[in-house]
Specification:
Layout lengths: L3 H6 L6 H9 L1 E2 L4 E4 L2 E3 L3 H8 L17 H12 L8 E2 L2 E3 H10 L8 H20 L7 E3 L9 H4 L4 H16 L11 H9 L1
Antiparallel strand pairs: 1-2, 2-3, 4-5, 5-6
Length: 197
């Protein structure tokens, strides 16, 4: 699927002071950090090198999200192999708790069928996408719109995931740099690694 680089980075300890300092130096007008030595920014090449995500290919775009809870449950059953209760589905978001519980209860072994391995893979992909690449403010749910891009495993790598992550990062940096904003959800790993380099 092309997410191995994201998975290889693992969990990281973030330097909150560095992140806050960077956000304070972000300029929404130019999408750059303003330092005393000049301007700098994060590029597509940076995203590609750090996480190994593709930057060429089809755009990662939102599709129809007007589904009802029952429709999302049906999509989850088809692609993830379980039906989540309506308390774990809110506005096109699936609780990370439900994903994690299903993941832990259905670990792959020698007896696992190929169909179940594919569903397990979709579950892992949604966790990576929802927790690391495109996190929400609480870190507690994943957008199910991304499931609509996953049904054909061979095509997942054809999307420009790196471009989507960079757009998400820029948008969140612009939002976080506003005075009234108190939380950040951008892919902090890319932000931190880029500034170590």
């Amino acid at each position: 699927m092309g997410f191995y680089g994201v998975l290889e980075c693992g969990s990281q300890v973030f330097d909150n002071h560095l992140i806050i300092a960077l956000v304070e130096r972000w300029r929404r007008e130019t999408h750059t950090f303003h330092f005393t030595c000049g301007e700098a920014t994060i590029t597509l090449q940076d995203v590609s090198i750090i996480w190994g995500l593709t930057i060429d290919g089809e755009a990662v775009t939102e599709t129809d999200v007007s589904h009802k809870v029952e429709q999302w449950q049906h999509i989850c059953l088809d692609l993830l192999g379980f039906v989540s209760s309506s308390k774990h589905l809110k506005g096109g978001h699936l609780s990370m708790t439900a994903l994690h519980d299903h993941y832990m209860a259905n670990l792959v072994n020698d007896d696992t069928s190929e169909v179940d391995i594919v569903k397990f893979t979709f579950c892992i992909a949604l966790i990576i996408i929802g927790r690391i690449m495109f996190p929400d403010y609480q870190g507690g749910s994943a957008k199910l719109i991304f499931l609509q891009l996953l049904p054909n495993i061979d095509n997942v790598k054809s999307y420009s995931w790196g471009s989507a992550v960079l757009v998400f990062l820029y948008r969140e940096l612009c939002n976080s740099s506003r005075i009234e904003k108190t939380t950040m959800v951008e892919p902090l790993y890319i932000l931190q690694v880029e500034n170590w380099i």
